[in-house]
Write a structure and sequence with these properties.
This protein has about 900 residues and is of the alpha+beta class. It contains 30 helices and 32 strands. The protein is rod-shaped, with a radius of gyration of 61 Å. The structure holds ligand LFPHGCPZ. Pfam families: EAL, GAF, GGDEF, PAS_4, PAS_7.
């Protein structure tokens, strides 16, 4: 039971309890509040740390509640979407934020579409990873994680660059297979010239098994530094300038060490903003085309060299170098076959060891002389695969060993007529046969080398012919000037003499005319080689033409006697008989000498003076030596004066005629006279026609002078007849110039008419050489003269070039054997041969033959014995005046002067 006190006390106790409880409650609340504050502070600190932390991560992050309100987002999120952080407040709806993004151009889609999309992925169970392609071109990767309360957390990462590389990588992966099929090099490089994409061809040639091994490498990892620098420099320029490089030829060395010519094209790569972010390259191996081009242009160049007469050594060297540039491990060599046809001489071997080429220079060809000597000998290619074991090289193995050549393929170089000109050889340091390409190049080289060598030989021949006499092989006039000038320079420098010797063979023409040109040629050759034997190798013997020679005695002691000794040697050598079958030909020489410096300072002066001296030798009866004397040349001035005098001589009546009788050898009676002109100069005295007739010819004065002779001879002949002397023929010499005058016939007709002389008493003497100048014209003029009744004879017969066939057609009555054949008739077999040949020729052609210059009984006896018809000469009478002839004929009529 409950009492009052107990109730009160119970109530008091309740009050105290309540107070205590309330105190406790207050205390508990305060504790709680403190704790709560502490907790809140802790939480706030955590929240700040969290915010700081999420603000510093590289991804954007955002939290949304179930009502699509923003709880939290970091700074990166604001950055990614281009919204100022101040605008992004907690509590903003997703729709608001999307509006901001649309406005900033950083939305992937329109607001409604985006909201729908966000809600759909938020309603899915798990997280969603997706990429948003923003309107501004960036790619954002978003991982959306729904929360159990219906809100969500999402991270946003800008993966634009990554996406690009991913594209590249994925494209690369798909392209790789494709580009690996391409045989050319294909690659992509970044802006640092590092390979990003490489095809198999490029990787393999640069020693990489897989193209991926090349990624990240640069040219410095593939090529020599210099080449790599060049590539980098050009690529950097291309990347900077943005201009492509098209088909540039570049030389590289690949991993195997082989050199290659590439035609490279490099094009800059541009992104959407047109910025250059790399380059793509493609390179095509043009080594073969380049070699073919080089071969073609090298070939053309070599042919041009040949055509422009470049030195043979240069042509051959170029040729060998061209071949070597086309091949690897090949050393070319050209050896030339010597003129003796037995030895090989160095031609060109620019890459062979010099000691080796020196050692084989001059090697004799033969059946077992390595590759080259054997090829030249056999006239066929000799392919030695291994020098060490091939028996052909047995004798040369030790020679070649130090140089390491192991195979040698030699092919003869042939002329177009198949003559061996040399050999072309390819040496290799490996034991092998030639490849097809090498064989083709061997064919090409031997052909071109053949052309070059043949051309050189032809040029040498032409040069030799231009400077030498073909008959004797002696230098000719062209070379004379050069040699003489050199000799003068030398003599000038060392105080020596140069002797210039003019040599003219005496009566050479006779040999030619009587025994034929072959005999003449043999005589000239024999005489030429004898002259060469008489002088030193440094002297020069020149044939000027015909029977004229010049000897230049080089580096002479200044001593005329020593020069004379050499000349006497030459003279004696020339005079030695030359045996031609049964004939023993003998000739003599008229020699004139002029010495530098006494007789002339120049080549021309020395030659002119030596010539003048030679003429003096001729004048003095031939077969002698004359040293030049200044007075010889006064003849030039003399000639000039004479010419002036000659012009007036006719008007002044200074000419006169002498007559030389011609005698019939059988009856001994005079039947004709030859009219011979004389010039009686008032102060110079009697001048020989030998001196003035050539001058009259040269000046044309011979025409009026010849006219005067014709008239005077006809007049005198008629006068003799009128004086009662027995009628006879008067012979008048007609010179070449006169004969060519178109009105010669009229002149003759006039002379006969004026003098009232019957034509049959006039005979015209024409020289053989005059007739032969123009046979047709001569024959027609002779026919015209003959039809007048005038007789014609051929003077100086034997000294010209009449052919028998031509002679038959000449309307001539007589042949006159030149007196040069009569001079030594008794002693000289040749003269005898000529004289008797002319006599028998006359008999055959039914022509009378007269010998002129007959002086001795022996000559007369020979002529009679050989049935010569007539003679003229000092033996019977010298040329005499007209009165002298009258006296002589009167005596003859009285029976006192015949030859019997
Ligand atoms: N166009 C003309 N030419 C003429 C004329 N008159 C002469 N000539 C030619 O001049 C050359 C020299 O003549 P010339 O000095 O008169 O000599 C002649 C004779 O004197 C000489 N001869 C005669 N017999 C002998 C002899 O026994 N011994 C010897 N040493 N000489 C002799 O021969 C000359 C005659 O020669 P050719 O005429 O060949 O018969 C001479 O070429 C004359 O032709 C003229 O008017 N016109």
């Amino acid at each position: 039971m409950v009492t009052k006190s107990s109730k009160r006390s119970a109530e008091a106790a309740d009050q105290a309890g309540i107070t205590a409880l309330s105190k406790l409650a207050v205390a508990a609340y305060e504790d709680l509040e403190r704790e709560l504050k502490a907790t809140i502070a802790t939480l706030e600190a955590q929240a700040r740390r969290f915010e700081t932390a999420i603000d510093n991560i590289s991804q954007g992050i955002c939290f949304f509640d179930v009502a699509e309100r923003l709880i939290l987002c970091n700074r990166r999120y604001a950055e990614i979407y281009g919204i100022s952080p101040g605008k992004l407040q907690a509590g903003m709806t997703l729709a608001d934020i999307i509006e901001h993004r649309v406005a900033a151009g950083t939305s992937a889609m329109e607001s409604e579409a985006y909201l729908a999309f966000a809600r759909s992925i938020n309603s899915s169970n798990g997280s969603t990873n997706w990429t948003a392609e923003l309107n501004d071109g960036r790619t954002i990767q978003i991982i959306h994680q729904p929360m159990p309360d219906g809100g969500w957390i999402a991270t946003h990462e800008d993966i634009t660059e990554l996406a690009a590389s991913r594209v590249m990588v994925s494209e690369r992966v798909s392209l790789q297979a494709l580009i690996d099929w391409v045989p050319d090099y294909l690659w992509v490089k970044d802006t640092e010239s590092r390979f990003v994409v490489v095809n198999k061809a490029l990787a393999t040639d640069h020693g990489r098994h897989d193209p991926s091994e090349m990624i990240g490498l640069s040219d410095f990892d593939l090529h020599a530094p210099e080449l790599a620098r060049q590539f980098r420099a050009s690529e950097q320029a291309l990347l900077r300038g943005g201009q492509p490089m098209i088909d540039k030829e570049e030389f590289i060395v690949d991993a195997s060490g082989a050199g290659k010519w590439m035609s490279s094209t490099k094009v800059p790569l541009r992104n959407a903003e047109n910025g250059v972010f790399g380059l793509v390259g493609i390179a095509h191996d043009i080594t073969q085309r380049k070699l073919a081009d080089d071969l073609r242009s090298g070939q053309a160049h070599i042919l041009e060299m040949i055509a422009t007469s470049a030195p043979l050594e240069e042509v051959l060297e170029r040729l060998v170098r061209l071949i070597e540039s086309q091949l690897s491990d090949i050393f070319g060599s050209v050896l030339l076959l010597d003129a003796d046809g037995a030895h090989l001489r160095h031609g060109a071997a620019p890459s062979l060891a010099k000691d080796y080429t020196d050692a084989i220079d001059g090697i004799r060809i033969g059946p077992k002389v390595g590759s080259c000597g054997t090829a030249a000998y056999r006239r066929e290619p000799v392919i030695v695969i291994d020098i060490v074991s091939d028996p052909l090289w047995e004798d040369f193995r030790d020679l070649v060993r130090p140089y390491g050549y192991r195979s040698c393929w030699s092919t003869p170089i042939l002329s177009h007529t198949g003559v061996v000109l040399g050999v072309f050889a390819m040496y290799s340091k490996t034991v092998r046969e030639p490849t097809k390409a090498e064989s083709n190049l061997i064919d090409f080289t031997t052909r071109i080398a053949g052309i070059a060598i043949e051309r050189k030989l032809a040029e040498d021949r032409i040069h030799f012919m231009a400077n030498h006499d073909t008959l004797t092989g002696l230098p000719n006039r062209a070379l004379l000037g050069d040699r003489l000038s050199q000799a003068i320079l030398y003599a000038q420098r060392y105080g020596r003499w140069v002797s210039v010797v003019f040599i003219d063979l005496d009566n050479f023409k006779l040999v030619n005319d009587t025994l034929g040109h072959n005999a003449g040629d043999l005589l000239l050759k024999a005489v030429a080689s004898r002259m060469v034997e008489c002088v030193r190798a440094t002297d020069t013997v020149v044939r000027l033409g015909g029977d004229e020679f010049v000897v230049v005695l080089f580096d002479q002691e200044p001593n005329a006697e020593l020069v004379a000794e050499t000349l006497q040697k030459i003279r004696a050598a020339v005079a030695e008989p030359v045996h031609l079958g049964k004939h023993h030909l003998r000739t003599t020489a008229s020699i004139g000498v002029a010495n530098y410096p006494d007789d002339g300072a120049t080549a021309d002066a020395l030659l002119a003076n030596a010539d003048a001296a030679m003429y003096r030798a001729k004048e003095l009866g031939r077969d002698n030596v004359q040293f030049y004397a200044p007075e010889f040349n006064s003849s030039g001035h003399e000639r000039f004066l004479l010419q002036e005098e000659l012009r007036n001589a006719l008007a002044r009546g200074e000419f006169t005629l002498l007559y030389q009788p011609q005698v019939d050898l059988r009856s001994g009676h005079v039947f004709a006279v030859e009219a011979l002109i004389r010039w009686k100069h008032p102060s110079l005295g009697l001048i020989s026609p030998i001196k003035f007739i050539p001058l009259a010819e040269e000046t044309g004065l011979i025409v009026p002078i010849g006219d005067w002779v014709l008239h005077e001879a006809c007049r005198q002949n008629k006068a003799w007849q009128d004086d009662g002397l027995p009628p006879m023929v008067v012979c008048v010499n007609v010179s070449a110039r006169q004969f060519k005058e178109s009105n010669l016939i009229n002149r003759v007709v006039n002379a006969l008419k004026d003098c009232d002389l019957e034509a049959k008493y006039l005979e015209l003497e024409l020289t053989e050489s005059l007739i032969m100048q123009n046979v047709d014209m001569a024959v027609s003029t002779m026919n015209a003269l003959q039809s007048l009744g005038v007789q014609i004879s051929i003077d100086d017969f034997g000294t010209g070039y009449s052919s028998l066939s031509a002679l038959k057609t000449f309307p001539v009555a007589r042949l006159k054997i030149d007196k040069s054949f009569i001079n030594d008739l008794v002693t000289d077999e040749n003269d005898q041969a000529v004289a008797s040949a002319v006599i028998s020729l006359g008999q055959k052609l039914n022509l009378r033959v007269i010998a002129e210059g007959v002086e001795t009984n022996d000559q007369v006896a020979f002529l009679r014995k050989n049935n010569c018809d007539e003679m003229q000469g000092y033996h019977f009478s010298k040329p005499v005046s007209a009165q002298g002839i009258a006296k002589l004929l009167n005596k003859e009529q009285g029976g006192h002067t015949s030859m019997e």
